[in-house]
Known about the structure:
- The protein is 68% helix and 3% strand.
- It is built from 17 helices and 2 strands.
- The longest helix is centred in the middle third of the chain and has 18 residues, at 188-205.
- 46% of the residues are buried.
Amino acid sequence: MLFPLLVSEAHSLSVNGQPQQLNEQEASQLAEELKQQLRNGNLPPSDADAIEKMVAGLGDPRGLMRLTFAESLGVVGKAAVPTLCRALSSHESVTVRRAAAKTLTLIEDPRALPVLLEALRADPDPVVQGSAVGAMAAVGAEAIPLLLDVLIQPESTAMQLGLASWALAFVGARAPEALRDAAVSEHAEIRCAAVAALGDQIQSLADDVAKDLVVGALSDVDADVRAEAATLLGKLHDPDWAAPQLEPLLHDAVGQVRKNAALSLMKLRASGSIPALQTRFEGETQSDVQAVLSLAINQLSHQDA
């Protein structure tokens, strides 16, 4: 059982159940030494005892002090990863777990991925979960299979799904091939997240393969994938290409897809699609979809006025 961290004049900072490793005075002295080393262009010490003390310092109640220890550990790099992973997985202090995950983001070591994944899935603190997925994203392509697995696990929470989807989009620009593969996965949840993430590749890399995958997603058997693809087209600022792709979705069997298509046409300022929107409005029986269609028609008509 780890000892609780107590905020007091002789604040005890500990790692792995070893209390009194640093008090606040010791932490201040060590931080000053580390800052001086960094200013002089020298590497912080990387022996096991020094790393343990720096990781212990991540529990200091002073934010600037924690930042000094995190930056020093980031400079130490891979040698600090095992100790940081132990702190992330088992330290009682949420402050230490948060700081450990954020520090692992600086190091970008694939060896930390299993521990980061477990923190995303099991840590009760949402900040730890978010910091862990940020560190996973920083690792890059090697994190993608783990992020995809989060998306298909039924026990994943809405927050975990959102974090994994964000990380997938972040990594995708650096691992385009992996994202393209995900866009044709057998799992609809993975296809949906991958399609949402393809926007950066299309805009930043002018990726024609990614563009074709989005077009294919417009006719996916899963309505959520079609809806996501429709939303993405509205973000690509290319109405001449996107509007003809979106207009058929105004007649999709699922109302959410029809709504997303109408909203994207509105965002694209695709006034040439007013007749298609009007036709759909006249035949629409679902009140919430009617409301969106009406909004899109009004906005686009006002734009031309």
